[in-house]
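May I ask you for just one protein sequence along with its backbone structure tokens in two labelled lines?

_____
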Amino acid sequence: MSDWIGRLGRSSAVHVSFAFLAMGSWALFANRAHPLPRMLLAGFVQGALSGCLTLFLKSAVESLSKRFSRSAAFIAPPLIACLGSASILIVIHTLSGTPEILRTVAVPLAVSTSYAAIYNYSIAIAKGK
């Protein structure tokens, strides 16, 4: 049983699906005061973006962490990942006509930035050993 759970936990498809459902649902909630078509589009767009960002965030942090040393290694990779994610989220939500852009991206951006910072910290600590 635990082997099955371990495989499930390492599955990219599971991570992407979870991100799609969790952050897409958040976007539905954040845009609940608007007409159904706009609310559903915001949920779908955020779900798709979160799925894609989840897929690429880990490798981006790993790649960026190799380019910096000392204190910059702790700050630059998650900061760059955060700025990149924020730019992508805001531009695509603007283009798709999401009514509540800041509310929609706040939680996904906080979650992805936290993940990037924690994962980057673990890489930076491991490099120091």
Notes: The chain has a mean pLDDT of 89. Residues 2-128 form one domain.
